[in-house]
Amino acid sequence: MVETERFVYEIDDTPFINKQQVASGSESESDFDYENMGNYEEPNEFEDSGEEQMDVDDANIKSNGGAFKAPTKDEVQSLRETGELFKSNFFKLQVNSLLEEIQQPASQVETLTQALHALRNLIMETKPIGKSTDGKLSTSDARKYLKKNNLSLPVSKELPEDVNWAVGYTVPDIVQVAGSWPLKTNVKRRSSRVKSWEVTLAILLPSHFIQEKDHQNDRWLFKQAFYMTVLADILKKSKLDIQVDITQANGSELEPVISITNKKGSKFIPSNTTINLVSALASPTPFKPLSKISPSRIGSKLSNAFMKPSLHTPHLTYLYNIAETVPAFRDAVKLLKVWANQRSLDWLLNGFNAEFVVALLVDGDQDGKGRVGKGLSSYQLFKTVMDLLRKTDFTSVFMKSITTGGFSKEDHFNSTPLLFIDPTHTYNLMDGLLPEDARVIGFEAQLTLNALDDDNDRFEDTFMKDLRNPTARFDLIGKGKLPSKLVKKIAKGTNVRQNIAATLARALGERSKVINVKLDDDMISIGLILDSEVAGKIVDHGPPAEDEEGCEVFKAFWGEISELRRFKDGKINESVVWQQSNGSKELVPIQIVKWILRRHFNIDQLSFIAEEFDGLLEVEAVDGVETFNDFGAPLQVYEDFQSMLRDMTTLPLEIMNVTPASAYLRHTSPYPQPTRQMNKFGVTPTSARYIPGADLVVQFESSGKWPDDLEAIQITKVAFLEALAAELMKSGQYMAQIVFDSPLPSDIADAVALEVINEQGFAWKLRIQHDRELTLIDRQLNDKVNTTNSQKEILKEARHRFLERFVNKPRHHQAIMALTHRFKAYAKTVRLVSRWINAHLLSPHISQEFIELVVASVFLDTGSYSVPCTPSLGFLRSVLLLSEWKYKQEPLLVPLYTASQIQEDHLDRKIVFPLKEKTEAEKTFEVLRRTDEDIKKTAMFVATEHDVSGGHYTHDRPSKVIASRLQSLAKATASALLDDGEVDIMQLFKSPTEIYDFVINLKSWVNTRLYQSLADDNFGDVDTSNDALVNYDPATMFVEYMERMYGDVVVFFHDACGGHVIGAMFNPAYTSPRKWKVGLHYPTKSVDSKDDVVIDKKFIIKEITTLGKDMIESVTSK
């Protein structure tokens, strides 16, 4: 290695780099072409390139009486360049603001600078120990010195005696600031383990202490350890008000670190800062010959430890040259560190790793590849770094060499799985990392690129959002305890983490995209990001039977669960078959991880939070019910039923279309339609008799025989449904009856349906769609002469009902069905979120469609997350969305129909909300909030491409009060799930009743859906009646009746999924005195003034108790 120019960063007037001391780096042209990435220059320095410029005539422009001038040519050019260099002008402002925010405050820098001066002066004034003037001690004298001063070395070995080399302490040759602080690329850390700011002081050990052969026989280990131990003792005994500790960097005894922080109450250095003192050696390394400490000879970790002390100056010099020739280098590094900080990608935060990644782009690798223009903006550099991290596996990356020495490529190969070799070619920046770690970084980079490539503002997702908690990032998180034998192996230096990661990668195969293994003392944490297409594969195919050697290897890996099986294609292979837990294929990877870690590492105390969700929605069968848990059978029976309807020839008109519009037929209802034995319905407990009906829309063939009168059309619908019921009942396989809406709407509005139940207990509710109906409604609404205002209100209600039943809900159903096919975890995620919302008694206030849209947003607009592949992760992300959504200031735009129209061969296409509809929705939301500042309507604005007004599912519900309640519950639930400790999932689905003004406790016989309850309730008595009624739920019907009766005076809360309590809260708006007047729609009582009244709470509770009669067990009030 050629000797690097002596370059010392001593602390004189400033701890930063002196530009005069650095030789400028060489300029060379980029040979790496990145599309749309030009050269960046500072504002106001753009030269006229001769391109056509905007012709601006100030005299001809008038705006606000001349208050504004037209932009100058330079300003126009600057704006145009800003858009190209920073995605948008607003994005640039955000980046600039961020870069300012992450700087250490000037007051702290001043304090820190003074502290560094004080430490340097103290250290440079220290005296040699012992009797000799050079501070050297024989190892025998050194042992006595340690014992006398009650000191111990930070190494596991004893300092030897009777050797021909010495240790000691005297004043260091140089004390210099190292690391990113003098380079001005340091950023504030977000970690519970380290301080926000770290500054490194390199202590250059006296050259006369070091000999060429000190790499042998632990000589350097002891010399360094002794020197740093004595220095730490000197600092502890000094008058400086500091806390001094000795730690180890990278867990290596060859890398002792003296950490200096404040004592309690001290102001010597900023309280959020740590000063780390590390040992340094002159460059090039004094250890000779270099081949003796090559990675191929002693391993990458040990080789790095020997080389690192000599690289502080060469690394800083190299990076400083890069920073001076690439204007945006420092800011790009800071952006990269902030990005890594938010994702706990610690490798990019350590040392100069982030700096070297950016330098790799601008300076290129050993082969001259990967270079980009030095004039790129910080954002362009950052984005290019993301691309680099995304597609580089770092198995063999060598930076362009700045010396003629260093180790050869062959010296580095096979020393460690990953190679990212520094410009001196003596140091592996990725030592200690696994291929799986690089994949985690690359995967996160890919997610960031995906986010930045769409039209939305992704600044917050990229740089501001806290993504450090792995629970929200990984599809599966497993935690457990390591056996003591494994802990001992780790202590001896065995790379257990690498062995575990490699074994898991082999076992999971293509099921996993990312494997993240972390070991902390005796604990292990495993994070998996899955490939949803293959994660649930239940068979692992091994080699064919004739491959005896391959079969033996396969069986040795999998153990006794491997078996020889014949498959349908006639092949005979060794294979492993996994079990589906409750039919849930998404948990197959958990079985694999548990089995393989138990077999190969004796790790048997591993738990996954996803397992806690498994079975949460499962219900055991009872008399008369074959299963409560099968979604497949109802859907298949429906297909047969609608096919039979379309084949009917005995009706006056043929049925052309049967369209579903029900969560029961799109797999998103919390519970499916039960599969029953209707001939045993009489022995089914009352609490399991709920027969849910799936809404169907029936369209007959076109005919001119339909009446041209709205009222007559409704009568004709009744006739058609009666004829259909008669035909169905002829077969003896169906029960059918005509039902009308309650309460009845006007005579011109759709209000009739046919309820049908088959022999298996599957029920459907059929309504007839006649498009002429909408035409007649619109015609009368537009008739300003013959239609009165009161008639218009009736017509508007009829129109709303028609669109909701025959347009919006069927269209919504088809779009949601597309999502359930595209995302395997979507449907069950909706079920979990829906059950959670119901469990917190919010059933009366939040529609199923609203829940489906919120969850759809989680899957379609992932931001910096991956698409959830497990329901447990989908559930967590959904409650996170609800907890973080600033619904008062922001609409939720869900590109539901854009996603549903993407063909299967284009599923990787970016899904974005169409610009025209997005603009319209945002404008509608803005007007809504401006005209309704109290948010009396549409508290949570959810829009789709076909509902830019947000009126379909969020106009009336949830209200502002309910929205606030929902967000509070979401925050509490998310906090519990993200907590490091154990969480009882069932507790997340329990809602306290103490918050309500009064609580109604229902009798069990009232609850026909008690089988859906998450509480430990029994199924109640058996009703001897054989009557089977569709959607018969007395508890919910009672709540709906009270809502109609009391309006907004009392807010009722209920769990429609088997809840046996009803919570109620009085609207505070009615509790303050107001003047009495005729027509008040609620009970009142007089207050002090004769004319003032308030709501009569006691009377309302008494009235409800009377209305409930035998349904109510008790009523408790505050």
TrEMBL record:
The keyword Repeat does not apply. Pfam families: Nrap (PF03813), Nrap_D2 (PF17403), Nrap_D3 (PF17404), Nrap_D4 (PF17405), Nrap_D5 (PF17406), Nrap_D6 (PF17407). GO terms for cellular component: CURI complex; small-subunit processome; UTP-C complex. Keywords: Nucleus, Ribonucleoprotein, Ribosome biogenesis, RNA-binding, rRNA processing. Residues 42-52 have a biased composition (Acidic residues). InterPro entries: NOL6/Upt22, Nrap_D1, Nrap_D2, Nrap_D3, Nrap_D4, Nrap_D5, Nrap_D6. Residues 199-321, 328-465, 484-602, 613-821, 823-990, 994-1115 form the Nrap protein domain. It is found in: Nucleus, Nucleolus. It comes from the Eukaryota. Residues 21-52 are annotated as: Disordered. GO terms for molecular function: RNA binding. Its main location: nucleus. GO terms for biological process: rRNA processing; tRNA export from nucleus. The keyword Lipoprotein does not apply. Belongs to the NRAP family. This is U3 small nucleolar RNA-associated protein 22. It comes from Wallemia mellicola.
